[in-house]
Amino acid sequence: MIEVQLRKRLGDFQLDVSFRAGDETVVLFGHSGSGKSLTLVAVAGLMAPDEGRVVIDGQMVFDSENGISLPPQSRMVGYVPQQLALFPHLSAAHNIGYGLGHHPRVARERRVAELAEMLGLEGLLDRPPHKLSGGQQQRVALARALAPNPSLLLLDEPFSALDASIRRTLRRELIALRERLDLTILFVTHDLSEAYNLADRLVVYDEGSTIDEGPRRRVYAAPTSRRVAQLLEFTNIFSGVAEPGEGGGTIVAAQGLSLKTLATGLQPGQPVDVCIRPDYVLLVRSDRGAGPQNTHVRGRIVDESAHGSSYTLRFAIEGTDMQIEAELPVRPYEVLDVANQKEWWLGLRREDLHVMPAPGDRQAAPGG
Amino acid sequence: MASSRHPETRADTGSGSRQLPVAAVFSAPAALFAAFICLALGALIYRALTAEGFTARLDDEFTLDALWLSLWTSTLTLGIALLLGTPLAYLLARGSFPGKRIVDVLVDLPIVLPPTVAGVALLVAFGRRGVFGEYLDDAGVTLPFTTAAVILAQLFVATPFLIRSLKAGFESIDPTYEQVSATLGVSPLRTFFRVSLPLARPALIGGSILCWARAISELGATLIFAGNFSGRTQTMPLAIITAFESSRGLAGALALSVILLGVAFALLLALRFVLRSRDMYLA
Question: Taking CA atoms, what residue in A is nearest to B280?
Fold first, then answer.
């Protein structure tokens, strides 16, 4: 369990973060330089914030109001920095056992063996760090951090330097590990798919501040602001004005289009942003409709790029200066013969169009 | 050549016709300087070995006293320098305290200062009628013209070499190592001994060698502060000067010089060997 609320000024940079979580994996997601690593450093007690509070497992480890600031040694936090910082002069076993100095030798060796077994490091314990592969080094660093049985584990982009296949393996292992151990994990990454893959809870960072926080599905599907939507790779975001729709929904008049949404609680005339993920944009076959409750627009492909397993298609929408991006897996792309047909009807389902208050608009966030 | 387009393969072609031009350009001045050293030391050894009475010099009491004094004082100097200089080097590298910049410059000062100036300063400070020496004298402590003065002179001129090297060594350690150590519950002092010092090992070795070498070759400050008394303050460099100015002249200086050269070389090799061969993975 963790509760973090921190402010720290560093030159022109202002860190202002706030989030809380239970025994789950919390992913701090954002661009590099947005303050994610700094948050870990502050939570570990390696940097003193200007103000705020940090509570780990019910214990107040930092509280500026009451002058509490426990040293890192007393915080029971496992920390794996981005560069791992495995002690180069120590073997893997001595690295793992480094934080167990106060235990008797036998207990220490048993704990090292236990962690080695858990992380698949048997047979590698005598090696120095430079004789281990990247993935093995990663596991040793993880084992070293876990050895003293911390209640909180801080992982700073731990997999960023590894090959894609090793990353996938280690992510799976981390998820399995989380399920076995009673601890909170704070995981920093700037990779959205990694963030979604690992997170129970997602915290979105932008320029030093946390701008959205919640269960991963909620944050991923329903960002609270235009900026969050941009960071979460909603490539279709349009400004518009709310108008009452049939059946309680809202129609958003955006750049010459009337987009049907399920949003509620909006005032007529209220400025809003509406967004839809490119993979939710439907290509509608001419012999089938997408239902009258949804929005249909006609577009022409003006740009496309292939990613191997999918295509990104950019459509210019007829009668407007709007462009909509759609992402299509390879198989439907081929079946629909998109390569030879450039004019399409696009379907925007009303449940997939997410409405947010426009920046500067002070009214409460709408549902839907 | 295809391989020259790939930086990673180019680095492997250290020998043969595809050497980097830089090696060809640099080899001439490099060889010139190496030859300069070899010629001087070679001539020294050659003349000493062919001179008459060289072997007699080896068990001369005057020589042995000076040699022994040089060896033990310089080694003790290194020990004291390690004890006092290591904490200072660490604080200069990692700490923040008022006047840090000034201390940093002061520590470097003995390196650029002529040793004779150091000798005068020590005499003025700790001489019997010196600024502080007066009080020491009242307390019954006499420093100048004693073996203690030899060690103080060596400490003054040699310790900065150790501090300088160690400071650079500590600075080059990624602070993340020390941070991780702290999160693992290890106190700052234990972290110093378990992480910082082992990681600064190359700097420690290099600095120790420099410090010891500077101590054993110390002449100017010793001469002024400790004087030139056989068996008490006459170290090898002083003995060489004394021999050079005596009736024996160059011949006497020659023998002593080559002995000092041999011993210094042997010790340097031994030190490197001992420090390098220690187990890399400390428990």
Answer: A89
